[in-house]
Amino acid sequence: MNPLSELVLSEGWPRLGIWLAGAIVLALLDCELPAFISLVVAGILTWMYRKPVRSTVHFEPGALTSPCDGRVSRVQTKDSGENIIEIETGCLDASVLCSPFEAEVSEVKVVRGARLRRKSPLWTLLNEHGSVQFQSSEGHAVHVTHKLSRESAPLCVDLVQNRAHVLRGTQYGVMTSGTTHISLPASVRIAVNPGEKVRAVETLLGYLG
Fold first, then answer.
1. What is the pTM of this model?
2. At 171, which helix (H) or strand (E)?
């Protein structure tokens, strides 16, 4: 078994392989500077697609953990009672997407699109995004949407079959850079604030019900 497969996510190998192959070819042609640049890019991709080591944390029943790494940019309760949490994932954050609690997947959708800047007025409409709805055994529905930023690689969501049962921490996709929008029912007790750093699987966002 390739030891690098234990360190790098499989979704990163196509891009990483191209840059590594390019570095080798350029080195054989004595193009030292381009070969060095290719190696640097390969190193950056290795970091972006790294497999993060996460400790197993015991949470109380009903706990909701972060589906991604990043920084909380928004926490809001709407007039309807719906709770919103948004998390910004950057290129230096681990790119894995993980189930926030043990649930049944009731909806999966991926829409390919553009890579516009967040400040663009068309960002909401045109940027590539994917959404997953998790349903708890008690009937609580949590809707998670991942929207890519300009610097991101294509979004990968592995949950292609609805009604799949997932455990907390099950990896279901990869997003190298973007915004995660989490829509929560009114009964959720939120445990994070804007500006806080969060880690997939390990950081508690709140409690369902």
1. 0.85
2. strand 171-174
Question: How far apart (Å, rounded) are the C-alpha atoms in residues 22 and 28?
Answer: 10
Task: Single out the residue of 187, 162, 195 nearest to residue 72, CA to CA.
Answer: 195
Q: What angle, 0 to 180 degrees and rounded to 10, lies between the N-to-C axes of helices 32-48 and 13-28?
A: 160
Q: Each residue of 88-142: pLDDT tens digit?
A: 999 889 999 999 999 999 889 989 988 888 788 888 888 889 999 999 888 889 9
Exposed e or buried b per residue across 42-72, where buried means at least 16 C-beta atoms within 10 angstroms of its C-beta: beebbebbebeeeeeeeeeebbbbbbbbbeb
* List of domains in the chain: 3-48 (no CATH), 63-207 (2.70.70.10)
**Residues linked to residue 156 through DSSP beta bridges, in sequence order:** 174
Contact 205, 191 (CB under 8 A): yes
Phi (first) and psi of residue 65, to 5 degrees: -105, 165
Distance CA 32, CA 39 (A): 10
